[in-house]
Amino acid sequence: MEALSAAILSAAAVLEGSSLGATMRGGRGVYPAVNVAHVAGLVLLVGGILVVDLRTVGLGRAIPLAPLSRLVTPLAVAGLLLLAGSGFLLFAADAGPLVRSAVFQAKLALIAAALVNALLFRRLFGDFADGRQPPMLARTMAVLSIGLWLVAGALGRLIAYT
Ligand code: HEM
Q: Which segments of the chain does DSSP mark as H helices, in order?
C-alpha cells in the first residue's frame, strides 16, 4: 500500500514536471481553454444523465424511456471522454498537490461509484425497450446517480477553493 502511494506520488510529480505540465501552466490561455472543454463535457454528461434519471424516477411518464435513453447515451459517453481527457490535462498542471487533495480524491471516488452504478443499471435493466415502467430498484439507482454526479461536479468546483 505504501509502495503504491509512493509510486502514485512520484508519477504525479513526474507528470507535473513534464513538458505537458509546463504547457498547461504556460500563458496563452491553454488552461482556461481546457477548463472550458471540461465544463462542456460536464454539461454533455450530467445534463443528459439528469434527464434520463428524472424520467426513470417517474417524471414525464408520457415520454418513452427507451428512445430518450438511446439519444442521450452517446452524448453522455462523449461527455465522459471529454471530461476524462480534459481532466487529465488540468491535472497535469498541478498534479503534485492535486493527488494529495482529499477533495480531488473524493471526486474521483464518486466518479468511479457513479460509473459502477451506471454500468450496473444497464446490465440489470437495459434501456426499458419493452416499455415497462422502472421498478423501485431502478428508481433508487437513478436517484443515487443524480446525487453522485452532482456531488462529483460540486467537488470538482470546490478543488479550487481548498
Ligand atoms: C474523469 C476524470 C476527471 C478528472 C481527472 C478531472 C480533473 C479535474 C481537475 C484537475 C480539475 C481542476 C481542479 C483545480 O485545480 O481547480 C477539475 C475541475 C473540475 N471538474 Fe473535473 N475531472 C474529471 C471528471 C469530472 C467529472 C465527471 C465532473 C462532473 C461530474 C467534473 C467536474 C469538474 C468541475 C465542475 C470542475 C471545476 C471547473 C471550473 O473551475 O471551472 N470533473 N477536474
A: 2-17, 19-25, 30-42, 48-57, 65-93, 95-100, 102-125, 136-158
pLDDT on residue 5 = 87
The answer to whether 95 and 15 have CB atoms below 8 angstroms apart is: yes
Q: What is the rounded distance in angstroms from the CA atom of residue 50 to the CA atom of residue 101?
A: 28
For residue 117, give its domain range. 2-161
Distance CA 32, CA 20 (A): 15
Say how many domains are in the chain. 1
C-alpha cell read off for 111: 466518479
Decide if pLDDT at 1 tops 80: no
Tens digits of residue pLDDT in 57-93 = 999 999 999 999 999 999 999 999 999 999 999 999 9
| Distance in Å, CA 60 to ligand 1 centroid | 31
Which atom of ligand 1 lies at the shortest distance from residue 42's CA? 29
Q: Cα of 129 to ligand 1 centre, how many Å?
A: 33
In angstroms, rounded to a whole number, what is the distance separating the alpha carbons of residues 141 and 53?
A: 9
Is residue 45 within 8 A of residue 73, CB to CB? The reply is no
